[in-house]
Every structure is written in C-alpha cells, then in structure tokens.
C-alpha cells in the first residue's frame, strides 16, 4: 500500500458525507445503499465513522460530473478515467467525483459503482494507489465479482488511523506472490499451448512480458467463474477447457463459456453422489482418457465413449506410486503428468508409472 | 494480455500519443518532454515508462510493448500513481 504524499489524514474520526447529485444509471436508493456499503468497508477496519448529511458542506462531498467540472481535472468521456478523489482536507479535500459519461452498474458489467466508490474513498481517507493487483487501491479497474478490502488495503488504512475497535481483528485476502516458496495451487490446466495456474481469485501464467509470471483475476477471462476453482483440464482436440467447482463444471473455449453450463458432474460423468467435488483432473491425449482425482481415489473417464471406465475408483497410491495419496492439481505436457501436492510438484511418466523429478510447485515461474 | 495465448507481438509503437498522455497524467511526465521516437538516448519518457512498468509488475524494458499498452488501455482511477 502507499500513503498519499505528505501523509494527509483526517484529524477527527467521525466524518460526514453528502451525495450532492445522482447518476440516472441507477435508482437513487441503490446509489445511497452502494455508497453506504463502500463507507462500511473502511469503517469496519478502522476507528472511522461516516454519517450522511443532506445539506451544507460535508467532509466528503460525492457527485457525478461530466468533462470539465471546475476542479482542474476534467473527465474524458466514456472509458479511461472513471472517477477521482481528493486527499483529506478542507473544501475539495476528501471529495469524490464520478464521471457521468460512464455507465454505472450494480453488477459485473462495466462499471460497478460499489467497486469504484470503495476505491475512491480510499483516496478520500489518505491512501494512494497500491501496486498489489489484488488490492482495492490498485489503479486499474478490474471487477472480480465481489468488492472487499484486501489485507494490503487494511494495512494501509490502519497505518493512517490505527486498528478498528471491532474485537475481531479483520483480515482480508492476500494476493498470491508467484515466487513465494510456500505457494500452492487450487487447479492447473494447459490452455492452447500455455499452462494456467489457479489460486483463489487469481490465475498465473508464464508470459514473456512479465519478469516472473503474469498474475491477474480469473474474472478477467470468465467473470462469473471468479474464484474457488478446484480442478481443470483441457481436451485440446476440442479446444475445450473444463473448470470444476463443487459438484458442477463449466466448459470454456478461450474466453467464451460454452452455452448450457454449468452442468452436474453426476449427470455428465456418472460420479456417485458421495463425491462432493473434484480435487484435480487431467486428460491423456494418447489414450483419450481423463483421470479424476477425488480424496485418496481416482476415476478414469473415456472421453470418446463418454463414460466412466469399469473397475474404478482405484487408490491413487496404487495407480500413481510415489506421489502420495492426495492431489491438489495436475496437468499434462508432452505426455508427462505434473502432479501438485502442497508446495511439491512431481513429474510423472504415466507409461512407466515412475516419478522422474521432484520440484517446487512454482518452478515454472522463472523465480 | 487477456488472450489465449498471451499477446506475443511487439506493438508497432503506434500508440505514442496514448503513452505520452498516460505518462503525463499518472507519472508526472512534463508535456514538453519529447516523444520516444524523436530521441535515441535514455529520455524522461523512457524513465517514466520504466516507472509505470515497475508499478504494474511488468518486465521493465522502457519499451512500449503489447502488455504495457494493454495496461494503459484499461479503465482506471484518475488519481496519479506517483506523487505530483
């Protein structure tokens, strides 16, 4: 996180705010509720309180404006700059301006007012932009499906105003760091020749424009699959990737979610109802079989016959000796299986059923 | 890059105006600084571009590659990324 240059802060903690005008894009009551929720994010984790006033000068004045609106920072029409806010202080200080040339929404279509308001209020309270892509104070607009303060944001506001009076010490999600030696994964798959790693709300992939690996929100590609993926695999000859969460799965082709999903793993693959979710999955091109890993067992599914092979489930420890009895994630590349369990990665040859190498989970990221 | 596979082509450097404006708005580049194409040596624009690439966790090259342009095209907050 970064504190605004000069460390401006409000000397009183019981702040007032006033909504001077409203966007026609949303009902007034929705705007009122959205702004109130945005303030609550910050009051929940700090000693600050926010009271709404309806006339006169409030500490934080909120308005929707077009183009040149008299503060020497004109807006630019649709897109690009969405809003801005001023650091704590008298008059214009603390005020928030939204660009009325944008379309303001309360869902995941552009642009979500709650997300932008929560960000701008961070400036009104003394925070500058954070380079943590998972932080609300990150400068670019990325809506990941829900609006919450990351641990980075919480650390920032508490550096200015101290902790909240709430007994439970609030915590927020931490953005994975690709070179963290303790990094583990929820799911991994190949996709059109690349390898995509999933963790919480984020994906990671090797990309020549990044020193270590590209990390961003899953929502950037699949907005309604924003987080908590548990397994994924690619059926390359169909240019299809299947993403699993709980007892459902989605099929995607590039960035497009195929119609008719999510579907049930019970109906589509024939899993017994005792299976509540899939830990990991991998398609083996030269046999046309997909291996599903669930707790200590694994199933084998025939993608051509579209049915589960007989004689399953079997014990993972028997079918894949040496990798342990549980799998977090797996993908296949050049005929080898790469199994991930915690911070360990096993390169496994399914033909000889032997482990070839043991690596750290994040060995793919040029750390 | 937001694409499969990730953007791989170096840009033809055709978005010079956007780069210049972005760095002026958010990285304190003075508007009288010449653009990249007119200079061969290290210039304030290259330095500011590196500052922006570092902030966004991109490879710090000082060159306007596809990924850097992709970030610059994203909608964002109007507050600068560095102190004015």
Structural class of chain A: alpha+beta
Oligomer: heterodimer
Give the overall form of chain B: globular
Count of distinct strands of chain A: 23
Query: Unreliable runs of chain B, pLDDT <50, ≥5 residues?
Result: none
Radius of gyration of chain A: 24 Å
Given the helix and strand composition of chain B, which structural class is it? Answer: mainly alpha
Give the chain pair forming the largest contact, with residue counts: A-B, 42 and 31 residues
Largest sheet of chain B: none
N→C terminal distance of chain A: 23 Å
Strand content of chain A: 25-35%
Helices of chain B, by number, come to 3
Tally of alpha and pi helices of chain A: 5
Mean pLDDT over the residues of chain A = 95
Q: List the secondary-structure elements of chain B in sequence, H or E.
A: HHHE
What does the model show?
The complex is a heterodimer of chains A (367) and B (84). Chain A is of the alpha+beta class. Chain A is built from 5 helices and 23 strands. Chain A is elongated, with a radius of gyration of 24 Å. The mean pLDDT of chain A is 95. Chain B has 84 residues and is mainly α. Chain B is built from 3 helices and 1 strand, in the order αααβ. Chain B starts with 15 loop residues before the first helix and ends in a 7-residue tail after the last strand. The interface between A and B is large, with 42 and 31 residues.
Could you outline the blueprint of secondary structure elements for this entry?
The complex is a heterodimer of chains A (about 375) and B (about 80).
Chain A: E1 14-19, H1 28-43, E2 49-52, E3 60-65, E4 81-85, E5 96-99, H2 113-124, H3 151-161, E6 187-191, E7 194-199, E8 202-205, E9 214-217, E10 231-235, E11 240-245, E12 248-253, E13 256-257, E14 263-264, H4 265-269, E15 280-284, E16 289-294, E17 297-302, E18 307-308, E19 314-315, H5 316-319, E20 329-333, E21 336-341, E22 344-349, E23 354-360
Parallel strand pairs in A: 1-2, 1-3, 3-5
Antiparallel strand pairs in A: 4-5, 6-7, 7-8, 8-9, 10-11, 11-12, 12-13, 12-14, 15-16, 16-17, 17-18, 17-19, 20-21, 21-22, 22-23
Helix pairs in contact in A: 1-2
Chain B: H1 16-26, H2 44-55, H3 66-72, E1 76-77
């Amino acid at each position: 996180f970064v504190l605004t240059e000069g460390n401006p802060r409000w000397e009183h903690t019981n702040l007032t705010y006033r909504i001077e005008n409203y966007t026609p894009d949303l009902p007034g009551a929705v705007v009122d509720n959205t702004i109130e929720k945005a303030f609550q994010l910050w009051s929940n984790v700090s000693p600050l309180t926010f009271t709404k006033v309806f006339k006169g000068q409030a500490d934080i004045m909120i308005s929707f404006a077009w183009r040149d609106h008299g503060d020497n920072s004109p807006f630019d029409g649709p897109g690009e700059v969405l809003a801005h806010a001023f650091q704590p202080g008298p008059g214009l200080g603390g005020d928030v301006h939204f660009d009325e040339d944008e379309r303001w929404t309360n869902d995941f279509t552009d642009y979500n007012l709650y997300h932008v308001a929560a960000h701008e209020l961070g400036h009104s309270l003394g925070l500058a932009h954070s380079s943590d892509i998972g932080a609300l104070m990150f400068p670019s607009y990325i809506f990941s499906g829900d609006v919450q303060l990351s641990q980075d944001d919480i650390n920032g506001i508490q550096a200015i105003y101290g902790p909240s009076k709430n007994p439970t010490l609030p915590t927020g999600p931490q953005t994975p760091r690709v070179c963290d030696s303790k990094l583990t994964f929820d799911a991994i798959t190949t996709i059109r020749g690349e390898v995509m790693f999933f963790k919480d709300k984020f994906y990671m992939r090797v990309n020549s424009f990044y020193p270590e690996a590209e990390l961003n929100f899953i929502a950037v590609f699949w907005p309604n699959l924003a987080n908590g993926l548990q397994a994924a695999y690619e059926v390359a000859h169909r240019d299809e990737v299947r993403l699993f969460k709980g007892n459902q799965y989605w099929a995607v082709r590039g960035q497009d979610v195929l119609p008719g999903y999510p579907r049930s793993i019970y109906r589509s693959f024939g899993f017994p109802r005792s299976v509540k979710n899939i830990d990991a999955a991998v398609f083996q091109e030269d046999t046309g079989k997909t291996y599903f890993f669930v707790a200590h067992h694994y199933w084998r599914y025939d993608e051509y016959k579209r049915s589960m092979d007989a004689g399953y489930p079997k014990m993972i420890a028997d079918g894949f000796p040496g990798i342990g009895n549980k799998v977090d994630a797996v993908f296949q590349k050049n005929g080898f299986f790469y199994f991930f369990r915690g911070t360990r990665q096993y390169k496994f040859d399914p033909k000889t059923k032997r482990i070839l190498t043991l690596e750290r989970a994040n060995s793919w990221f040029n750390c | 890059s937001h694409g499969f596979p990730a953007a791989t082509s170096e840009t033809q450097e055709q978005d010079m105006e956007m780069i210049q404006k972005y760095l002026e708005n958010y990285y304190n580049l003075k508007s009288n600084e010449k653009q990249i194409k007119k200079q061969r040596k290290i210039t304030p624009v290259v330095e500011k571009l590196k500052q922006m690439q570092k902030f966004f966790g991109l490879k710090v090259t000082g060159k306007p590659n596809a990924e850097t342009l992709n970030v610059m095209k994203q909608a964002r907050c109007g507050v600068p990324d560095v102190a004015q």
